[in-house]
Amino acid sequence: MATISAEERQAIRDAIRKICADFPDSYWRSIDAKGEYPQAFVDALTARGYLAALIPEEYGGAGLGITEAGIILEEINHSPGNGLACHAQMYTMGTLLRHGSAEQKRRYLPKIAGGELRLQAFAVTEPDAGSETTRLTTRAVRQGGKYIVNGQKIFISRAKQSDLMLLLARTTPYEELKDKTDGLSVFLLDMRDIAGKLDIQPLDMMFNHHTNVLFFENVEIPVENRIGEEGRGFRYIIDGWNAERILIASEAIGDGRWFVERAAKYASERVVFGKPIGANQGVQFPIARSYAHVEAAARMRDAAAEKFDRGEKCGAEANMAKLLASDAAWEAANACLDAHGGYGFAREFDVERKFRETRLYMTAPISNNLVLAFLGQNVLGMPKSY
Ligand SMILES: Cc1cc2nc3c(=O)[nH]c(=O)nc-3n(C[C@H](O)[C@H](O)[C@H](O)COP(=O)(O)OP(=O)(O)OC[C@H]3O[C@@H](n4cnc5c(N)ncnc54)[C@H](O)[C@@H]3O)c2cc1C
After folding, report:
1. I want to staple 332 with a disulfide (CB 3.0 to 4.6 A). Which of 87, 91, 154, 256 is the partner?
2. Ligand 1, residues 84, 138, 155: which to mutate, most atoms within 8 A of Cβ?
């Protein structure tokens, strides 16, 4: 990974701000109202190579670190936009990069880097397993040179906006395992090959998110599309969790800054009882408090990203960053909504849209309860709840 100077990081931040300036409030409001995928925005980022930030240069990517990827997503959410539509194109390939064969990497990464292939669907969650990933039941049974997959996944985002899907499926029945973290395998499923056998049903969500229920019926995956060893899939997926936590924290920080800035501006301009409402401590202090919490979360995210980019263990920092940033963004969202009074609920002010969007970060890709359980059990050594 190349060494990136402070000036280069600022240049990345400025470049993302410039792209986002072409996609104002009205664009995102209209996309939200119609439930559309923000294709024009994603195309603009793809064309300039930003979604290939984490792909090494030898495969046609930018070879940047998690710090820079975080800046990109933070600035998208700091604008009226939202990185959820495209963040997975940045980091889902991490499992392929770390655990794929030389042939798999050569075959897929350059096309993912160039945007010819979209790998932004990541299928883990199941209705009956939920947060307990080791209980998932979607079954991949080997038959000669292929696996036959049957089962169901839920909340799988962007399956219709993706060519490839990273799939975690069971290759050994749970009852036959000594270690419950064994028995799952990761596959790179080419969805262009299996039309008809994978039923994708959209889920109507609280905000504009392209999430689906998937039904696998005898879906065939060639053995050469398994990533790494059979039965090691859960560990491969875990390897990507710290990066994901840092990037999710970055999006929440971007949202938090958007809410704080909008709230401070509105509270300074809106006059009631003969003075700006922001002069009242009941309005001003919640905004100032959430500002402090967003900036504190940003420092923790920076600490996690620096350790990650140095190749050091960063599980504690990455989890704390995700927890603090999602909580702070939600606090800022509430302060912003309160400051706007009734106008906060009017769609044309965009606060209610961002409010709906930012709530997700407390729940997905992992709920904050499980983040607290990681800190309590894995960092502080307290007894396990599961
Ligand atoms: C918009 C959206 C997009 C998503 N996209 C994807 C995707 O692309 N791919 C994918 O695989 N998944 C995706 N998910 C799923 C997401 O990762 C899960 O919703 C999340 O991990 C929680 O799982 P669950 O919903 O089954 O909740 P459950 O596991 O049923 O948990 C419900 C509640 O109980 C709490 N809880 C459970 N066990 C414990 C415990 N031991 N201690 C304390 N509290 C506990 C949880 O914290 C949570 O608050 C998405 C979800 C949403 C909402």
Report:
1. 256
2. 155
CB 322 within 8 A of CB 249: yes
**Residue 64 Cβ contacting ligand 1 at under 6 Å:** no
Residue type, 174: Y
Rounded Cα distance, 352 and 333, in Å: 9
- What are the backbone dihedrals phi and psi of residue 63, each rounded to the nearest 5 degrees, phi first? 65, 30
Distance CA 108, CA 224 (A): 13
> Is residue 326 within 6 Å of ligand 1 at its C-beta?
no
Query: pLDDT tens per residue, the chain (386 residues)?
Result: 668 999 999 999 999 999 999 999 999 999 999 999 999 999 999 999 999 999 999 999 999 999 999 999 999 999 999 999 999 999 999 999 999 999 999 999 999 999 999 999 999 999 999 999 999 999 999 999 999 999 999 999 999 999 999 999 999 999 999 999 999 999 999 999 887 789 999 999 999 999 999 999 999 999 999 999 999 999 999 999 999 999 999 999 999 999 999 999 999 999 999 999 999 999 999 999 999 999 999 999 999 999 999 999 999 999 999 999 999 999 999 999 999 999 999 999 999 999 999 999 999 999 999 999 999 999 999 999 88
Candidate from 120, 125, 152 with most ligand 1 atoms within 8 A of CB, to mutate: 125
Which residue type sits at 158?
A: R
- Ligand 1 pocket test: pick from 363, 378, 382, 385 the residue with the most ligand atoms within 8 Å of its Cβ: 363
pTM score of the predicted model: 0.97
Tokens coding 19: 């792209």
DSSP string, 80-113: TS-GGGTHHHHHTHHHHHHHS-HHHHHHHHHHHH
Ligand 1 centroid from CA 300, angstroms:
24
Q: What is the mean pLDDT of the chain?
A: 97
Distance 323 CA to ligand 1 centre (A): 15
* Atom 38 in ligand 1: residue holding the nearest Cα: 131
Say if residues 255 and 298 touch (Cβ distance below 8 Å): no
- What is the C-alpha separation between 169 and 312, in angstroms, rounded? 29
Give me 292's structure tokens: 């402090």
Helix axes 315-339, 351-358, angle to 10 degrees: 150
